[in-house]
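Reading a protein record of the kind used here takes only a little practice. The record below shows the convention in full.

——
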Amino acid sequence: MPEVTKVALIGLDTSHTIEFARRTAAPDCPPDQKVEGIKVVGCLRFSTPFQSEEGLDGRQKQLESWGIPVTMDFAEATAGADAIMMTINDPAYHLEYFKKCAELGKPIFIDKPLADSIANGKAIYEIAKAKNLPVTSASSLRFTPALLEACEAAPEPRYVSTYGPLGTAPAGSSIIWYGVHAFEMLERAAGCGAETVTSMTTKAGVVAVIDYVDGRQGVVELCKESYHYGGCVRNKSKAVPYVADTSKIYADQMRILIPFLKGGETPAPMEDALEVMAMLDAAERSFQSGQTEKV
């Protein structure tokens, strides 16, 4: 890969498109938020239920003011790109656009969540595997330093609790769309092996209990109108609470992603993304059925 890797952004219906681009191209980006080594060379615009046309117009204007061209033509958006960042807010569109991106044979980052269902998540996984494509997918909360420090301080945890917001999705599952952040933190700390999920509706939101095949337990608390993230990682000898600092999450995530976009190793294996997707899918099914559901 060249010293400066050219990246195409696929999707404009999320604020993350702007936030990722800001840290590479905005003249007024604070030095501690600026990232080096990549250049955004194009952005693909299309409509989803997650953003109005007026909102898309505003975001397009912002990107163009930073010198980033925005187009509705896929080939034009990706021309000359060395890597792809799929920044699509509506996960129902992920499989469709991943199939297009996969044909390019470039490293692909899929912004959270992996997909809108475990079936579509598995389809993405199988395509990536069949084509031997470098693909990764994760929430920025996976990489927050406070969580990473807690995982290091309490390795091999038996019990992990996390909390985060329960935003209201304009379409599809709110648990899958926004619960991904808290479930991502759980998977980063506890790893794979979730067996069942039991979701309980409360006045404040949703609480999910995750049981693992080896007796471990996870608890994910999703609260309405509380946009804070954190949790506690516990092993046999200690409990380490943490609170995520969200002021630098985009820069933190991009600094971890850039080596991958340049052709390096994935910072989050697709097996982990699939585990997160499976837990989210089971949490939504449990929320709908009122029963414990298998992962």
About this structure: The radius of gyration is 19 Å. The longest strand covers residues 194-201. The chain has two domains: 5-140+249-267, 141-246+277-294.
